[in-house]
Design a protein that fits this description.
By secondary structure, the protein is of the alpha+beta class. The chain has ten helices and three strands. The protein has helices spanning 13-19, 29-34, 39-52, 59-62, 111-139, 142-164, 172-195, 199-218, 223-227, 233-249, and strands at 71-76, 82-96, 99-109. Strand 1 and strand 2 form a beta hairpin. The radius of gyration is 29 Å and the shape is elongated. It starts with 12 loop residues before the first helix and ends with a helix. The model has no long low-confidence stretch (mean pLDDT 83).
Length: 250
C-alpha cells in the first residue's frame, strides 16, 4: 500500500478471491474497502493507515488498535448470492531511513475461526442455561418433579403418535384435529415447565407451539405439511429423560 493509499504492484493470486473481486495495482485501497465495510469501519481504517504512514508514531504502539483486525465483508459467492466473510488485515511498515515507503498488508480469511467462536459461545451459553435448569429441578420437591416427568413423557409421546399417525392422504379436517390435539398437549406441557422454572423446556415448547399455530393459520393443513414440521420432540424427550433420571436418583 503506497503513501497515496494505492495498491502496490505486488498482489498475491489469493487476494482476488478474498475480496470477491478482481483487484489491480493502482486502485485506491479505501475505494475497494468502501463497497465492503461500513462507513465507520472505513473512517477508522483511514485514520489507522494515516497513523502508520506517520514516521514519528511507533508502529508497535498502534498495532493493538488496528480496526481491521476482524472485519465482516459482504461478498458475492460463486452462485452470485451475497455472503458474509470475515477478513483480518495486518499492516507492517517498510521504511527507507526515517520515512515510511509503503505498508505491507497481509490479509487472512478468518471466517471459520469467527464462526467457530460464535458456535462455542452459543454452546457455552446453552450449557450454562441447562445447568441452571438442572439446579432448579434439583431444588424442586421430588414428588412434584416425578409428577411433572410422568405427565411430560406421556404428553410428548402422545404428540408424536398424533402427528406421525396422520398420513399424507388425510383430509384437512383430520389434519387439523391432529394439530389441535398436539397443540393442546404442548401448551399444557409448556405451562407445567414454566411453573417449575424450567425455562429451556418452556422455550422449546413455545417454538413447537408456534409452528403448529402457523400450520393452523396457513390454510394448507395437509398430511405432507404436518410431516414436514420441524419437530423438537427428540430434544424435549431427551431433556425430560434427564429429569426423570434425576428424580429417580433422589
Amino acid at each position: 500500500l503506497t503513501p497515496g493509499h494505492q495498491l502496490g504492484s505486488q498482489l498475491s493470486r489469493s487476494t482476488h478471491a478474498l475480496f470477491g473481486r478482481t483487484l489491480v495495482p493502482g486502485q485506491n485501497f479505501f475505494e475497494v474497502l468502501s463497497t465492503l465495510v461500513s462507513e465507520k469501519a472505513l473512517a477508522d481504517a483511514r485514520d489507522y493507515v494515516e497513523l502508520l504512514f506517520s514516521a514519528h508514531v511507533k508502529e508497535q504502539l498502534v498495532q493493538g488498535i488496528n480496526p481491521l483486525s476482524e472485519v465482516e465483508l459482504t461478498v458475492t459467492n460463486r452462485l452470485g448470492q451475497p455472503a458474509s466473510r470475515y477478513l483480518s488485515f495486518h499492516f507492517n511498515r517498510v521504511q527507507d531511513g526515517a520515512s515510511v515507503r509503503h505498508l505491507l498488508v497481509t490479509v487472512q480469511d478468518i471466517t471459520q475461526k469467527v464462526e467457530l467462536q460464535a458456535r462455542l459461545a452459543g454452546e457455552r451459553q446453552r450449557s450454562q442455561k441447562e445447568l441452571s435448569m438442572m439446579l432448579k429441578a434439583f431444588e424442586t420437591e421430588p414428588a412434584m418433579m416425578r409428577a411433572f416427568v410422568e405427565r411430560a413423557e406421556a404428553s410428548l409421546l402422545e404428540v408424536n403418535d398424533l402427528l406421525r399417525s396422520t398420513s399424507s392422504a388425510a383430509s384437512e379436517a383430520q389434519v387439523l384435529k391432529a394439530v389441535d390435539g398436539a397443540y393442546r398437549r404442548i401448551h399444557a406441557f409448556k405451562g407445567d415447565a414454566a411453573s417449575l422454572g424450567l425455562e429451556i423446556l418452556a422455550a422449546l415448547a413455545h417454538q413447537f407451539e408456534s409452528e403448529l399455530q402457523k400450520l393452523k393459520d396457513s390454510g394448507a393443513a395437509t398430511g405432507d405439511a404436518l410431516l414436514a414440521l420441524p419437530l423438537p420432540l427428540e430434544d424435549l424427550l431427551s431433556k425430560v429423560g434427564a429429569f426423570k433420571a434425576l428424580s429417580q436418583k433422589r
